[in-house]
Recover the amino acids of this structure.
């Protein structure tokens, strides 16, 4: 049996569901052929006939699946550091939003940007993620709020995938904020989104999923439900910003619509968690937004554990509530602020993040047949990836069986 590349003398966390814990392998190897994993496991268990064109000694380094950031808004123009300063001086997020700032200030900047501008502005944010071993990233639209600019944002997300060795999963965030031109006419905007924009995005193959901000300051559960029906009809997966600032029963709504994930969830109750468990909807925790907004109510992690709701962790990289481009820091925050265990954090940015994107059949664990996407680390113990703050121990990244940089 021939393979293209074989990494040996490695310690693996395979995250394979069949192995206990994180699937630790002390003396491990990974063989790649045509970009996919041919074999991952103990050196002793490798097929005797395995020969490699290239053999790479990893000197005992730790190998994990490539990291997956399953919730970002990284394609946008402008920044909100001025609003940050105003909030430090005492203004609230709501006051700034009412004065025309907040999401709508990023909408103005994004509408003024060309696709090339958006790509140029977003590339450094993407590179920051890749430098920490990310090999799959989800990117949402939602700062255009009209057909032309939402499409431009999604095209920019697709363009980023051509410029870097990374998988991009694009999400049409059609219900993010009410665009100013429809401020007096919610119903017309809903019609436009469900009847024109969403079908156009689906027909052009610009997104794999849709998302909505279901919140008192954004869209109601009824509006969200209608949008989800349209998404289902168009063959797009569903995701939801749910129960972040209040309990509108977004978690249960997401589960009812077969959503891949419900995200944030600070105010989710037991019934919402039970609905998620029954539907297999992943809880995506976003501690960067919790931290930035100085929230105090934490997501019900104990209930998720008890009911068996899968838990993922993501950056929520966005200019307003989570200007965060580090999945390592997101893990540290999830541990310290939400009391996730180290194994939950590591699974949350690999296997469970893949589940939250509906791509667990392709990535997220080190198992034969999946894409050979690896993050290789200079650490003594994997817990260091969660424990350190602002230190990047990535050795190298592998995307589809090849060394990838950044
Ligand atoms: N995601 C969002 O879309 C909003 N909060 C969040 O976690 C707000 C984003 C923004 O202020 O631009
Ligand atoms: Fe978000």
């Amino acid at each position: 049996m021939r393979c293209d590349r074989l990494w040996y003398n490695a310690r693996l966390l395979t995250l394979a569901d069949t192995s206990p814990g994180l699937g630790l392998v002390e003396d491990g190897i990974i063989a790649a052929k045509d970009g996919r994993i041919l074999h991952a496991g103990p050196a002793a268990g490798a097929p005797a006939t395995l020969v490699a064109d290239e053999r790479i000694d990893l000197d005992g380094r730790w190998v994990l699946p490539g990291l997956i950031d399953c919730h970002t808004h990284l394609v946008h123009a402008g920044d909100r550091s001025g609003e940050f300063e105003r909030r430090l001086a005492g203004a609230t997020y709501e006051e700034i939003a009412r004065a025309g700032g907040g999401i709508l200030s990023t909408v103005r900047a994004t509408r003024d940007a060309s696709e090339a501008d958006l790509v140029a502005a977003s590339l450094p944010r993407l590179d920051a993620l890749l430098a920490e071993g990310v090999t799959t990233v989800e990117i949402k639209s939602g700062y255009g709020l009209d057909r032309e600019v939402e499409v431009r944002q999604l095209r920019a997300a697709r363009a980023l995938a051509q410029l870097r060795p990374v998988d991009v999963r694009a999400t049409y965030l059609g219900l993010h904020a009410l665009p100013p031109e429809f401020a007096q006419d919610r119903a017309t905007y809903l019609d436009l989104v469900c009847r024109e924009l969403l079908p156009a995005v689906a027909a052009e193959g610009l997104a794999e999923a849709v998302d909505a901000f279901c919140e008192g300051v954004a869209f109601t559960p009824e509006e969200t439900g209608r949008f989800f029906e349209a998404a289902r009809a168009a063959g797009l997966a569903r995701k939801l910003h749910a129960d972040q600032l209040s309990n509108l029963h977004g978690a249960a709504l997401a589960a009812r619509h077969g959503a891949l994930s419900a995200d944030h969830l600070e105010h989710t109750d037991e019934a919402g968690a039970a609905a998620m468990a029954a539907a297999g909807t992943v809880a995506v925790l976003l501690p960067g937004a919790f931290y930035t907004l100085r929230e105090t109510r934490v997501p019900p992690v104990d209930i998720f554990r008890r009911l068996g709701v899968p838990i993922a962790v993501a950056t929520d990289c966005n200019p307003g509530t989570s200007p965060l481009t580090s999945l390592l820091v997101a893990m540290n925050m999830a541990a310290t602020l939400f009391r996730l265990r180290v194994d939950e954090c590591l699974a949350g940015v690999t296997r469970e993040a893949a589940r939250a994107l509906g791509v667990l059949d392709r990535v997220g664990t080190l198992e034969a047949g999946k894409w050979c996407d690896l993050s290789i680390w200079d650490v003594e113990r994997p817990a260091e990836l969660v424990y350190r703050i602002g230190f990047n121990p990535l050795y190298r990244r592998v995307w589809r069986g090849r060394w990838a940089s950044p």
Q: What stands out?
A: The chain has a mean pLDDT of 97.
